[in-house]
What does this fold into?
Amino acid sequence: MNEKPPTSATLFLNEDADRPPVARRRLRGAMERSASSLKERMSSVSREKVKGFLRRNLFVLFTVAAVAVGVVLGFALRPHNLSLRGIKYFAFPGELLMRMLQMLVLPLIVSSLVTGISSLDSKASGKMGVRAVVYYMVTTLIAVFIGIVIVTIIQPGKGSRDSPVVKSGNIEPVQAADAFLDLIRNMFPPNLVEACFKQYKTVYKKTVRIRNVTLTLNLTDSLNITESDLSVNLSRVLHTIQETVEETVPASGSSNGVNALGLVVFSMCFGLVVGSMKQQGQALRDFFDCLNEAIMRLVSIIIWYAPVGILFLIAGKIVEMKNLAEVGGQLGMYTVSVIVGLLIHGLLVLPLLYFLVTRKNPYGFIAGLLQALITALGTSSSSATLPITFRCLEENNRVDKRVTRFILPVGATINMDGTALYEAVAAIFIAQVNDMDLNFGQILTISITATAASIGAAGIPQAGLVTMVIVLTSVGLPTEDITLIIAVDWFLDRLRTTTNVLGDSLGAGIVEHLSRAELKSQDAEVRNSVLEENEKPYQLICQENDSLNHRNGETSM
It folds into this structure.
């Protein structure tokens, strides 16, 4: 009577207790099997996969280690106060890397552009070119806008008036109009051989000349008499004097360095013509294709020396720095402004643009570019990094060679996102140091001239300083104040070069995605032409055999 009915919990426990040992054994066996498979998987990951990962990314790991060791070594050697001669000798391995990479730039630009454009028909290359130019303009304008917003918010130049920034070095004057005319002149070099080592540059000469100036003397006023007192009506006399005038006149000149813009324009036109020649231009196409392949094989050999060169380049620059406290104190906020702008543009804006167009993970794409980005950081030259950028895009990211050969040389010459951002920040910083408030019109002028000037900045170290003159002149800022920022330019130059290379590479990925239809139709045409070529000899052999049999039949009769 007093017995309680069994609850659901007690029933569950009783069922569990009554479960046969076979089920428990099965459960234990399944757990053991999963544990052993997990163990096997972990052991396979720890051995084979780690080895494969290290083998694939050995160069990247070496390069990252070289940057870290270079920074440590540079700061360790600073207390020893090496002489300028000692620093020069110490940085010699880095100088060798720069020379090796620059040696390959010239044949690489010419061969890659000619093969890239000649392998495309004029319609496809035209569409690809338009897409590339639109991408370059959009990203450069965005970079300038980011720079202007950052420098306006942070205002790095406002605090500099309390502790005046030290000027260092001197900058030669450049007129904005002459600089833009030089840009156009360099697009059409009169001598292609000279364009390999020189570019046109306007120089200024002072000329002194004597000119005659005619002055009008009013005798009536000077003699303090009236006309009625004069017997002769002579109130005005013309007097001629000689005046010495000193005038600055632009003259033809040149500066050392590869005229990359001229070679790019020539190679593009040459590639278009070779492509339009069809079968007749096949020999030239094969020659430049073979040259491009040979250069890329040389790159794969030189690339193993890159970590050593980068180590000494970075360590040498750190040893060379004059006063770290001065750089950190007076120009610290300016440096922070540029770095923040470059990080926003390089790690947020450009990847977002890539994702919106391609719907692919941009950071996976950037991971494949790590070798090129670290080399750009070490060499501070987008042109010198070009061979390694080609290798990263074609081998790691599997970008079509026809796209990379067309987009990368053009991008390394005219697409300078980082430089445009830096120039906008520097111009407004100098205005803030001089306590000048810029209106909207002047800021708009800075954005337009910074975009245009970045196109003219050659892909060589610290070329941005020269084009800065154009930006400052456009809004009436003192050009000699560029010397304020020279102290930190070597460091910021490396960062903006890395941003430039990243912008070029993501641009190649975007252009390839947008040009898929043209590339597929081109592949289909090539396959059809190959089939036709393979069929022709077969038909000719058949015809020859028929005629031979016919001839043999005639002779036997």
In short: The CA atoms of residues 446 and 471 lie 6 Å apart. The chain is about 70% helix and 5% strand.
